[in-house]
UniProtKB/TrEMBL annotation, chain A:
It comes from the Bacteria. This is Molybdopterin-dependent oxidoreductase. Residues 759-774 have a biased composition (Polar residues). It holds the Pfam family MoCoBD_2. GO terms for molecular function: oxidoreductase activity. Residues 230-309 form the Aldehyde oxidase/xanthine dehydrogenase a/b hammerhead domain. Residues 755-774 are annotated as: Disordered. PROSITE patterns: TAT. It comes from Umezawaea endophytica. PANTHER family: ALDEHYDE DEHYDROGENASE (PTHR47495), BLL3820 PROTEIN (PTHR47495:SF1).
UniProtKB/TrEMBL annotation, chain B:
It comes from Umezawaea endophytica. PANTHER family: BLR6218 PROTEIN (PTHR44379:SF2), OXIDOREDUCTASE WITH IRON-SULFUR SUBUNIT (PTHR44379). Residues 75-152 form the [2Fe-2S]-binding domain. Keywords: 2Fe-2S, Iron, Iron-sulfur, Metal-binding. It comes from the Bacteria. This is (2Fe-2S)-binding protein. The keyword Metal-binding applies. The keyword Metal-binding applies. InterPro entries: 2Fe-2S-bd, 2Fe-2S-bd_dom_sf, 2Fe-2S_ferredoxin-like_sf, 2Fe-2S_ferredoxin-type, Beta-grasp_dom_sf, Diverse_Oxidoreductases. Gene3D superfamilies: 3.10.20.30, [2Fe-2S]-binding domain. It holds the Pfam family Fer2. GO terms for molecular function: 2 iron, 2 sulfur cluster binding; metal ion binding; oxidoreductase activity. Residues 7-56 form the 2Fe-2S ferredoxin-type domain. Transmembrane segments: none annotated.
Amino acid sequence: MAEHRRSPEDPTRRRFLGYLLAAPTLAVGVTWADAALGADEAEASIPSLPQPEDLFDLGDLQNLAALPTSGLISVQVDEDGTASFALHRTEVGQGITTAVAMMIAEELDLPIDKVRITLADARPELLMNQLTGGSNSVRSIFTPVRTASALARQQLVRTAAARWDVPEDEVATRDGVLSHRSGKSATYGSLAKVAASDRTVQVSVSLKAVEDFRVLGKPQNRIDALDIVTGRKRFGMDIQVPGAKPCMVRRPPTINGTVRAVRNADAVKAMPGITDVAVIRYGVAVRGETFGQCVDGLRALDVDWNPGTVDGESDATVLAKLRKARLPLAVPPLGALSVEAEFTFAFASNAPLEPDNAIADVRPDRAEIWSTLKVPIDARQDIARQDIARQLGLPVDKVVVHVVTGGGSFGRHLFHDVAAEAAEISQKMGKPVKLSWSRTDDFRQGRAHPMCVSRVRATHLLGNVLTYEQRHTSSETSFSHGLGEMITSTAAELPIAGNYTFAQTIFLLSQSVPYNFGVVTQLLNEIPLKFNTGSMRNIYSPNVVCAQELVVDKLAAKLGKDPVAFRREFLKDDRLRAVMEEVVVEGRWGRPLPKGVAQGIGLHAEYRGAVAVLVEVDCRPETVNRPISDGVTGPRVTKATIVIDAGLPLNPRGLEAQMIGGLNDGIALALTSSLHIKDGIPLEGSWDNYFYTRQWNTPPDVRVVVLPPTTGTPSGAGEIAVAPSFAAVACAYARATGTTPTTFPINHGELGFEPFPLQPSTPASPTNGLDSAF
Amino acid sequence: MSQHTFVLNGSRVTVEVADDVRLLWVLRDILGVTGPKYGCGLNVCKSCTSHINGKAFNPCSVPVSKIKESDEITTIEGLPATVGRDLHPMQEAWLEEDVSQCGYCQPGQIMAAVALVRKTKAEGRQITDADLDGLRNICRCGTYSRIRTAIRKGADRM
């Protein structure tokens, strides 16, 4: 038990400040955030100067923005012996609640099943520290949450020591029990009231050394796993709010179209189960007893529509505009001494499996919202007052926003479109509503990662790469959520000069080339088309890194080198070098494979972590043409090996899960999943149109290796595997077929499905479901 | 409106609702059984997968009028009772493999997995990669490889 005693007087350990809060049971708040700015600067003793991302990345921006307000988060110990923490982040599957529970269990010496994590409502006083995105949650929470937990433990130790009249350093803690060698012991719960402070006082504490971790660093299963497998986990649509009846919306035939006239609202209102019909900003809302009846009602509506914001646009027109907007390359082509390539990436949907939904109860004097929101403060302000077309005319403090655990996000929940729409409907109907978008709404009117073109030119001479230029041109990505505000408020402290847009700032803070390629420039240009866009998992990196790694393979081929040998020679990032060497061994790089099957490797460092992915892709006709009804087969990734250096891995099991998820996203982006834009709207309407990776596409053989700690701080995890997986699959495909693809996903040119009609906007549910029972 | 009676998770239930309302909404919006999830309403994503008389089906695509009085509907909530335990072996395998991420598709995945294993056992054979490839349930978090491992593990104990 001695190892659990920690001397509060140890002068060699860094101390962290916090407060004992005046509360009925022990409560601790922290005031200090470890931004770790510039803590791991890239080595600069190389021909390529560090790019902005090397020195200061998107997560650092978020940490900087979080600094002034992190002090307001608190851990409470309750009389039942549990510790509670209302997390100011959103759980959408990435495992943040489990990671935070582990941090609290670690510093409090409490079993993890006695830690209760809930999601905090929108807390305006937290300002920008309540944003879930950019793989930043663990990075920014790690120190404050451990500090609060350590302070709570310290206060329990002090309370027990005083009560037993023994020195504090003789009190040990384990599994929620305090003990002394004299045989005295007490549970945390029994001291929770006595340990409480009657006034708020500042205290300090030192944190456990990494070597002493008993919980962090060990594989831990998700804390919500039992609720999930029993169907007890509550998502937005599972929450019952009195009077909040189901509601769906008839939507326009083009993106952001508006209602000109509704001819039969009264007749629809009289349909079985329908209670209300209301015209809203982008459609006509129907409220009823069941969602099924809402679908019937919205389909029966007879509506005339005004045009939308991109009515004339299709894939080809957007691509033409992108090509016109490309920024020039600075270095002239050197004929045989240059490698040039241009890649087109189609629109991709960030829709999670759980359709966008929100519950809103708007009254004349107040409003209450429940939704999965990664920037809940933004939602609260907008819903209350900022969004003029939908303003409720309420003071912001009369709007309560509850954050609900989400069925995925992938960028979608950075925006609060569905919550704002639910509020608008509830206000217009004067009743509470439970709004769900239909699956088809999610694909056709929901936000997407926009089409972009990445052009690369690299020059080489005498076996050296002299220049690497990448010009990324994209249809506009909206950052009009909290991340945009964060950039505005921290602009003066960012290491990039010039009048950049939000998008260019994020691009520069997230991109860098990890190779010694001489003069390196990567620039972004955007065209202002008004599609509904937003960040998608790993934002720009999947496209940028895929283009980069394909060009790296081309350079290697041109210099007559094996892709791994070439990378070994030119890599400037030691952490990437280490993960690559590991993946080469683990994934058996260079092993003999039949003709038509090949390996590919992709490397990527971001979020202060590094990942290498090695895949094998089978492009033989018997695999490509496997019959699957209503699905695309195509080339199959048969084997994948992923190695991650996560700095300080906190939960290897969770990290492994995020690597597997990122891999399947990368496979989808490379091979199968995209939106086809035609006359102002995507054609995709279901998961049999938008071909996200399915069981018949996923590799039967997947291995993930989490490297032992390499730094003292955890990296981001949720997004980092997408880009290198995409790149590895693309590189393997190029090697297997002998042709480097230039359009992604590779099957985008063929429309592999019959689109649902554009109107009515939501298809009827089938009635023959029993025929496919098995 | 008409009355519809069937057996839900071992208990007889009667609901009053229009004939063409799909069973998913009867379960979720009227009976408050929220384990089966809405992911598309098109019999595509399979996140509402439940059992009818032991076979996997998707209630989003079956009008309530097609359910007979004698039909036994089992949702994820009623799965453990079918083996008389707190958790079905497939649920235990899911926990051991820590399959879930967001969890939205997982009740449907588990129900589909149980039906697949029953089917292959009835055919007197082991689960193959081709069987697993044939599962249509979407997992947008991409947990597929852990699903495959868990199904094989669960199958050994069923």
